[in-house]
Amino acid sequence: MSSTILHKSARDLGAAWPAAGTAVRVDQPGESAERSPAREEAEDPRAEAKNPFLVALGERVRGLRARRGMTRKSLAQAAEISERHLANLEYGVGNASILILLQVAQALQCSVAELVGDPTTTSPEWLMLRELLVGRDEAALHRVRVAVSELLHGAASGPAQRSQRIALIGLRGAGKSTLGRMLAQALGYPFVELSGEIEKFAGCSVAEIQALYGQNAYRRYERRALEEAIQIYPEVVIATPGGLVSDPATFNELLGHCTTVWLKARAEDHMGRVVAQGDMRPMAASREAMDDLRSILAGRTPFYSKADIHVDTSAQPLTETFELLQARVREWIAPGAAA
After folding, report:
1. How high is the pLDDT of residue 337?
2. Residues 184 and 296 placed together within one structural domain of the fold
3. pLDDT in the model for residue 286
4. How far apart are CA 255 and CA 249, in angstroms?
5. Under 8 Å CB-to-CB from 220, ≥6 apart: which residues?
6. Dist CA 321 CA 130 (whole Å)
7. Do 184 and 282 belong to one domain?
8. Among the four 12, 71, 150, 333, which has the fewest Cβ within 10 Å?
9. Does residue 144 form part of some domain?
10. Residue 239 belongs to a domain with what CATH number?
11. The model's pTM
12. Residues 327, 225 within the same domain
């Protein structure tokens, strides 16, 4: 017989002497005190109906612990949590707080993202790439991103190939549609309003896409519309939706194949232009709407700032703004046109 099981009811398995009725496992000589995951899973009466995310989280914790060569006891001590709490985490029982995950991550010398399954932590190559990039400044990260984009996409993403596609980015009310049409006419390029192309793909309005299918579906249509515009038009002016930059994959596609222009404006001008277009919804709660707009603008500014050209549409009237935009774009695309 490999072990003896005595039953008791006490809940504190760390007591010096077990109370009557608690299950106590006595290992035989040569048998590991830490049971295998499969065996504990089989003996765990709570093994049924576990949340798949918690199960996967537990598997990653066990895998990282094994990779570090740590026993559960040593990890629990390093994380300053109880061994029972750690066992529950490893086998998908209970919902660990974020502070517990942080303590476990620190003890394992990894990020919380690695515990919860961030795709950039799923292979040694990803982890080594992350290590190379940690601590680099924005300029260095920009150079790496451009170099990787050109490496993966070949010459198609080089300056000469992408400069003739002009993509305008910025919040709603920045002037993308108005200035985009004027710029396209001046350059003799087609003009594409990407929101209209999204609606063609979906067969319904943007508002209906959001209401019926949700944000994820909208982002998929947005990506398809952009890919088709890039494929069809070697020379074009594209007005993009304001939220396109919030999807990294789509924004990378845009940066890799287009000359990007950020049309900047003050929050008050964004709001005023939207209202002037006949959309009175922001006025229903003007103070809260303005606060929300400022928050969105602040959150997206680091992404908008990745654009090749910045034009402040609040600094001068429309005619002067267009002249400035046209001059900046013509200056930028001139080497590409010559090539």
Report:
1. 47
2. yes
3. 62
4. 10
5. none
6. 41
7. yes
8. 12
9. no
10. 3.40.50.300
11. 0.66
12. yes
Closest residue by Cα to residue 63 from 82, 89, 31: 89
Range of the domain at 300: 155-338
Question: DSSP assignment of 265-327, as one string?
Answer: --HHHHHHHHHHTT--GGGGGHHHHHHHHHHHHHHHHHHHTTSSEEEETTSS-HHHHHHHHHH
Estimate the share of the chain in helix, then strand, then coil, as percent rounded to the nearest 5: 60, 10, 30
Claim to verify: residue 184 and residue 116 sit in the same structural domain:
no
Q: How many domains does the chain have?
A: 2
Kindly compute the dihedral angle of the four CA atoms of residues 98, 99, 100, 103, in this order, to the nearest 10 degrees. Answer: 120
Give per-residue pLDDT as tens, 30-86: 334 444 444 454 445 444 567 888 888 888 888 888 767 778 888 899 889 899 989
Q: Is 263 exposed, middle or buried (0-12, 13-18, 19+ CB in 10 A)?
A: buried
Query: Is residue 207 domain-shared with residue 315, that is, in the same domain?
Result: yes
Q: Are residues 180 and 324 in the same domain?
A: yes
- Both 224 and 295 in one domain: the answer is yes
Residue 62 domain-assigned (yes or no): yes
Is residue 1 included in any domain, yes or no? Answer: no
Instruction: Give the Cα separation of 96 and 64 in Å (integer).
Output: 17
Residue 82 φ then ψ, to 5°: -75, 150
The answer on 113 and 203 residing in a single domain is no
pLDDT digits (tens, 9 = 90+) for 78-109: 889 899 989 988 888 877 787 788 888 888 87
The per-residue pLDDT for 280 is 53
3-state secondary structure of 96: coil
Tokens in use for 16? 């010096």
User: 3-class DSSP state for residue 94?
Assistant: coil
Question: Of residues 336 and 242, which shows the higher confidence score?
Answer: 242
CB burial of 203-220 (b: ≥16 within 10 Å; e: otherwise) equals: eeebeebeeeeeeeebbb
* Chain position carrying tokens 């001068």: 316
Both tokens assigned to 248: 């990294």
